[in-house]
């Protein structure tokens, strides 16, 4: 820019004036990617006394009713109180803090003249404890939605010890002529975390339920067999 202007113009201190104008240009500042980050993060004070400081934040909205959740945490003892609310106003926040916290627990050290220290959005460093708690709550909601989406295309089935199942092969070792499943294997145990313990002959293996399917025996019966009473009634009718 300076050399282009010098082809037609010149004055005393031209280089200094051009540099000053470019540095103060608002349009240039808005469109330039900054190479330096300004502003040091403040040091975090560590509070070692219980009931001295309480962090409050809200999360939401959730559901069709668009309700929110208020979270209150004692930053030292990590005591947590959560309450679902339909109104996210400051008056409701003050009322819930008084009813759920001040009326039940010792008052904070900064009591009778509590000053609110507001923080900005997208600033988890300012209240790291409560933001970490909300991060965990959001993760639980995300896992729940993923499970609902995964289960939407799956059939309800309750495995029992002794059932026979087929185990799906790993996708990266399949070839054109190999089968999609191995087995059948016998179920030894059913765990609450969505896994099965199966007998593979010389050893046992824990597998995830999405990798297995119930085994249909050679009689051609459906996987989901009727209960014993129904099977007994059908046999009597056949005999008759």
Automatic annotation (TrEMBL):
- For the region Disordered, give the residue spans: 218-240
The segment(s) forming the Integrase zinc-binding domain are 1-33
From which residue to which does the signal peptide run?
Answer: none
Q: Which InterPro entries match?
A: Integrase_H2C2 (IPR041588), Retrovirus_Pol_polyprotein (IPR050951), RNaseH-like_sf (IPR012337)
Task: State the protein's name.
Answer: Integrase zinc-binding domain-containing protein
